[in-house]
TrEMBL record:
GO terms for cellular component: nucleus. This is DDE Tnp4 domain-containing protein. Its cofactor is a divalent metal cation. Pfam families: DDE_Tnp_4. It is found in: Nucleus. Belongs to the HARBI1 family. Keywords: Hydrolase, Metal-binding, Nuclease, Nucleus. It comes from Protea cynaroides. The lineage of its organism: Eukaryota, Viridiplantae, Streptophyta, Embryophyta, Tracheophyta. Its main location: nucleus.
């Protein structure tokens, strides 16, 4: 069937032709004389006017165009519907599909396969996802959201895990972009406020003792309870200058891109026990630290750390470690130098301190590797802090649940001038200097003792081995390394267990 719009256009052309050349009218015209008869095609072609030929040419072109249009219009709906059907069948993010997955299909899957699928989609395993939903569901229900709570949380987690924009997620979930942004803001705000105090806690009591013990095994420095560092979170875009009060350069970090600054303190399990996002990317670490709640609590002795040890006659309270961009305090120890120009005792202390600091670098790398939205944050500047803190809460949930660690995101190395103590921090600086020197000298002495023990162990092993070989040339001997206090080495000769112990004054050989 011919397109009605084409018929109307053809009729208008015919009337226009009759108006130009009434003598060669192609159809009867009410405006033409009644005595005129219908002309033949040959008469039309032999007319003195060029209008008939022009008309036939235009009519042929329009007829061809109409036929092409009608065929394409009839075929396009079917092809369009086929494409939509293929897209929907490949990835269905509707509420009904999600509900079928979570209520029917999920329990028929084996746990490893199920959790792998959920990690690839939402950044964490299904049991951890259910835990997050259970914590947030009462608060989401109070917001009168038209979507189910678990569906809303899953949508936000997929955005945080993959870094999707609101527009991309809206297309996937058949929602309006403003609604996706609204749900993202709501869920991240709940994570950053309602769950922060439950999963980001300063270590005290038993956890404090466990943390300091691990750091001592890692660094040989006693009473270390955490490591602090800052990291710029790249912003996809900045708002107009007028919204930044004319200071857009304040958000340019040392790498040159717009960012906000994240400050975290991590323990030996790469779990954050303090998070602060209060400064633009151009702020130095020392200034950001002084603006944080942690600084106020530490300077006011508001944290109940009762674990005090004695090192060379000095009382050492629990402390955190950072690089030279942070000020030296009694509760925050930093290296003596950044280039190894100190004394042997100071250089040994710096090396040990940087081993302890490495845990916070790994924790930040895991954070950005697991929640990839932090690699290029595509939310508004007003919602950036709560989104970052929400990712830190989710990071801790994954670490506590011992989720598999994803590949770490590697930031470029940052540098900066050494921080100086303020006038109001002089007393903290003096105590920090005394504590740092005492710890360095104590570490140097203990390292020397360990070298002496190693030499003594080598001597005893050599002497005993010679004695055994002289008495029994082919005796099988086995040597075992040991790390218990005072135990030099442990060996077994022909089923007889022998241990060498070193005490302050002598070494004792015991046959077990």
């Amino acid at each position: 069937m011919m397109d009605p719009s084409f018929l109307l256009m053809l009729s208008n052309l015919l009337h226009f032709h009759n108006h130009l050349d009434p003598a060669s009218s192609l159809v009867s015209d009410s405006y033409a004389p009644s005595s005129s008869s219908t002309t033949s095609p040959t008469a039309t072609l032999s007319s003195n006017s060029a209008a008939p030929l022009l008309f036939l040419t235009i009519a042929s072109v329009l007829s061809y165009a109409a036929s092409v249009r009608s065929s394409s219009s009839t075929s396009s709906p079917s092809s369009s519907s086929n494409n939509n059907h293929n897209n929907d069948s490949s990835v269905d993010h509707s509420v009904s599909a999600f509900r079928a997955l979570t209520t029917q299909h999920i329990w028929n899957m084996e746990a490893p396969m199920r959790d792998t699928q959920w990690r690839s989609s939402y950044g964490l395993s299904y049991p951890v996802f259910i835990r997050v939903v259970d914590k947030l569901k009462p608060h989401i229900l109070q917001s009168n959201l038209s979507l189910p709570a678990d569906y809303a949380v899953a949508m936000v987690l997929s955005r945080l895990a993959h870094g999707y924009s609101a527009k991309t997620l809206a297309t996937r979930y058949s929602l309006e972009p403003y609604l996706v942004s609204k749900i993202t803001n709501m869920v991240t705000r709940l994570l950053a406020t309602k769950l922060y105090s439950k999963f980001i806690k300063i270590p005290v009591s038993r956890r404090l003792h466990e943390t300091t013990q691990f750091f001592e095994e890692l660094t040989s420095l006693p009473n270390m309870c955490g490591a602090i560092d800052g990291s710029p979170i790249k912003l996809l875009r900045l708002p107009p200058d007028q919204e930044l009060h004319g200071h857009p350069s304040a958000y340019r970090c040392r790498q040159g891109y717009p960012a906000v600054l994240l400050q975290v303190v991590a323990d030996h399990k790469k779990i954050f026990w303090d998070v602060c996002v209060k400064a633009p990317g151009g702020t130095d670490d020392a200034t950001h630290f002084r603006e944080s709640l942690l600084y106020n609590r530490l300077t006011s002795a508001d944290i109940g750390w009762d674990k005090v040890i004695n090192v060379r006659g000095h009382h050492i309270r629990p402390y955190i470690v950072g690089d030279w961009c942070y000020p030296l305090m009694s509760f925050l120890l930093t290296p003596f130098s950044w280039n190894g120009t100190g004394t042997p005792a100071q250089n040994s202390f710096d090396a040990a301190l940087m081993r302890g600091r490495s845990v916070v670098l790994d924790a930040i790398g895991l954070l950005k590797g697991r929640w990839r939205i932090l690699q290029n944050l595509n939310v508004g500047l007003n919602h950036a802090p709560q989104t970052i803190v929400a990712c830190c809460v989710l990071h801790n949930l994954c670490q506590i649940a011992r989720e598999p660690e994803p590949p770490m995101w590697k930031d470029s190395e940052e540098g900066g001038p050494p921080a100086r103590a303020l006038e109001s921090e002089k007393s903290f600086y003096c105590f920090g200097e005394i504590s740092r020197q005492a710890l360095a000298e104590d570490l140097r002495q203990r390292l020397s003792s360990r070298r002496d023990c190693a030499l003594l162990m080598t001597f005893f092993t050599w002497k005993f081995k010679i004695a055994v070989e002289e008495f029994w040339p082919n005796a099988p001997c086995h040597y075992y390394a040991h790390s218990k206090p005072g135990l030099l080495f442990f060996m077994e000769v022909v089923g007889v267990k022998i241990a060498f112990f070193k005490f302050p004054e002598t070494a004792i050989l015991i046959t077990l």
